Request: fold
Amino acid sequence: MTSVSGTRAVQDPAEFTEAATLLVDFNREYNYPAPEPDWLATHLDTLVKSGDTSVLIFGTPATGVAVLRFRIGTLTADTEAYLAEFYIEPGSRGKGHGTIFLDEIIEHARSRGATYMDLNTSEDDEAARHVYEKRGFDCHEGHGEGPKAIYYELELD
Reply:
């Protein structure tokens, strides 16, 4: 049984392993390639130690994981946060955990000085889109007034 005891920033090897395992599960759920959990746990630790990344887990044992990447804005000196990963285990969905976790992720970003947060998700992930939109995320340039924002990607290798 999982207890919802809030969000914690990952600091120790056991927590990095929990986070990595959840991220691998996330990728496998959507049939995306995933590295081995041991490698990913070490990599997440390296990212956190670099200072520009926070890895957060939710629940005890962890049923949710998030990875935030921080950067300085291009046109301002403000800190921006990119929600690179956000996942709740299937058995914990539909219980409000995603909303609680997202609120705590946003608060963590604010505590690190972020004044802006962005993310991407697929159009067909309606559950995730609902959670994001409920918290004020918008997929239009100009915050609801402009055209629909489109996310592009390109593999460079």
About this structure: The chain has four helices and five strands. The chain has a mean pLDDT of 93. The helical segments are 13-29, 37-50, 97-111, 126-134.
